[in-house]
Amino acid sequence: MPNPLVLSESTPVGGICRCGNRIPPNTMAFRVVSVTPNLQPMFRGQLFCSAKCIRVLCLESLESLDAVDTVGANATVTDLHQFYLELAQTYVQLVT
Question: Cα separations (Å) of 77 from 23, 30, 32, 38, 42?
Fold first, then answer.
């Protein structure tokens, strides 16, 4: 599994962080790169105002996946186990 890399760089195009903060053009923003192919769609094109927002996204996503993983939903969530594992590993690497 590749180590996720958080880049802090000036972004020529602004955006909105997932928390709702506006990121103006030509200001510092955070991006996550070098993640597994399963996680690339989650982070592709996403700008964050802080590393904390990245960690919160990971935790909220893990919580959502955990809520779906019930005994009655085994057939539905089987494909999500690998995604959950990779996301959990990414989160651990981001906080250490």
Answer: 35, 30, 25, 15, 18
